[in-house]
Amino acid sequence: MKIDKTGLEDRIIDVFLNSTNERGYLFITNMETNVTRWSRNAVEYFHMPGDYMYDVDSFWEKRIHPDDLTEYKRKLEHVLSGRREWEYFEYRIQNGDGEYVVCTCKCTIAKGKDGEPDYFSGTIVNRGIGEIVDPVTLLNTNQRFVEHLERIVRARWQAVVMDIEISKFSRISVLYGYEAGEQVLQCLANLIRGIIGDRGMVYHLDGPKFVLLLPEMQVEEANRLYEQLQELAKTEIEIDGKRGVPIKLSGGATVLEDFDGTPVQVKSTLVYALTQSKYEGRGELVWIGINSEKDRDNNIDLLSRIHQSIMDGCKGFYMCYQPLVDVRTEQIVGAEALIRWHSEKDGEVSPGRFIPWIEVDTVYYELGKWIMRQALHDANEFRKVLPGFIINVNITASQLERREFREDVCRIVEESGYPPNQLFMELTERCRQLDYGFLKKEMAFFHSKGIKLSLDDFGTGSSSLGLVMELPIDELKVDMSFVKDIQKKRINQAMVKHIIQCANSLGLKTCIEGVENEELSIFLRPNDASYYQGYYYSRPVPAEDFKQLLA
After folding, report:
1. CB under 8 Å to 169, separation ≥6 — which residues?
2. φ and ψ at 449, to 5 degrees?
3. According to the model, what pLDDT value does residue 541 have?
4. Could you tell me the end-to-end alpha-carbon distance of the chain, in angstroms, rounded to an integer?
5. Backbone angles phi, psi at 230, to 5 degrees
6. What would the pLDDT profile of 255-290 be if each residue is shown by its tens digit?
7. Which residue from 44, 326, 343, 430 lies 20 to 30 Å from 275 (Cα-Cα)?
8. 531 contacts 324 by C-beta, under 8 angstroms
9. Element (H, E) at 444
10. CA distance 252 to 432
11. How far apart are CA 424 and CA 453, in angstroms?
12. Do residues 54 and 31 touch, judged by C-beta distance below 8 A?
């Protein structure tokens, strides 16, 4: 068949298509002729028949993993139908050797002078190809770390694996400039290399993260190594030749001893341990066990089952809702949406057992979108009974840090038809660790879209007051720790009173959490809060039961 190359042979197209690297591919399709032109790198890697292809879908879709094909077609249709100007999606696809690699694609439609679709174009990034050496630190990258870790796991060697991160790294760029950040990474890399010597390997992952792989090292020696590194980080970091720019580190570690699990389990354990160090351990090295069957059943195997549930379309997850009650009328005005999980193996799993693990894992992002979508769907049902119904949805730091979070939230709200001004995004405690400037910019964006913002667990942590001063907050939720024993503790009474007075003077809504009985409800009423939330009014219940509460 003769290929019609009309509109695809322009020299400008030549320049763009041939300017990509081995990981990135460009394509452009003439929608009238249904002929696509590809980057030469893509043709070689995927063993395509040529730079020009007629009806590329017949070639491409056969190679996409069956589990990803439906979602791929759905998002592609968003662009082709004109529902969305741009679409971004990820899928697994076979390369020329028949191996599946992960690719991310961003595509759009270009319209002609008559306003009709003219060209379909996009970029594809191959996540299956990675560089082995990081050009900034000259350390091996994540790809080589995974290879080495797999070797140790297969051989069941004894080793310490340690994850290290520079805390609040973004502030370095703000204070000293972008290039300073690279200097700090280089300096820390040299310090780690100097301390480790020939006792192990060090790898640079994304951003301010490093991993140490230490064969045959004992826990005590690893602790001393981390303490030494912490001290050097306070005094030996240089920027523009000036020594003494202090940085703070967080660290998580595990020890492998005849470990019979998988590298994924090791990496998941390190993520959780590092998070504990950042948010609860104040930078101390946190160790998480991984070797015993009990360790894996309590932690890693549980996380693996959660991963699988989310990949299966959030199977086993469901939403519960706890009422927000107007203090004056004691009528329900809204609810907080809370995620729950029922596992076929474990039965009903306590949120306190699985949420701390998954909210710092990359897989949580997909679950977070499902939570938002399901919460707004159910809230629309509740609005049929109570038109002014408000819904509070928790947002984690890991969600806010994703570039596509803004776009995804706006799309979900638009598709649901739910009024944005009746949606409150609750910033959970770990959001407070994010850079103020970044938080302010993100929250201002959502505020501009009409979405309200709520600060959860207010009063716990030194940054709560700072957040109220910096961010466009609409609601404060007084942490239940202030309510416990408040009838006996005058300091708690004073704190709750002044928090609510301050909020009221600023025109903010307030919600007191942890109202467990009628006596407490009556005792707190003079404080003039907006809402109550607690077991006295209802435990968190599934959507159908919540409808009964409204009725």
Report:
1. 181, 184, 207, 208, 247
2. -90, 5
3. 96
4. 66
5. -60, -45
6. 998 888 778 778 878 887 887 787 766 789 988 887
7. 343
8. yes
9. helix 436-448
10. 21
11. 5
12. no
Residue with tokens 């015993």: 292
Element (H, E) at 533: strand 531-533
- What is residue 191's three-state secondary structure? helix
Ramachandran assignment for 450, one of left (phi > 0), alpha (psi -120 to 50 degrees), beta (any other): left
Q: Is the dihedral of CA 205, 256, 254, 212 positive or negative?
A: negative
Q: What are phi and psi of 544, to 5 degrees?
A: -65, -40
Q: Angle at the Cα of 357 (from 355 to 362), degrees rounded to 5?
A: 105
Task: Please state the pTM of the whole predicted model.
Answer: 0.59
User: Using CA atoms, how far apart are residues 43 and 363, in angstroms rounded to an integer?
Assistant: 31
Q: Which residues contact 322 (CB under 8 A, 6 or more apart)?
A: 335, 336, 338, 533, 538, 539, 540, 541
Hey, which residues does 340 pair with through a beta bridge? 318
Count of other CB atoms within 10 angstroms of residue 172? 22
The segments of the chain whose pLDDT lies below 70 read 1, 15, 18-22, 128-131, 173-174, 178, 280-281, 291-301, 360, 459-466
Q: List pLDDT tens digits, range 489-519.
A: 888 888 889 889 888 888 899 999 999 999 9
**Residue 320 and residue 540 in contact, taking contact as beta carbons nearer than 8 Å:** yes
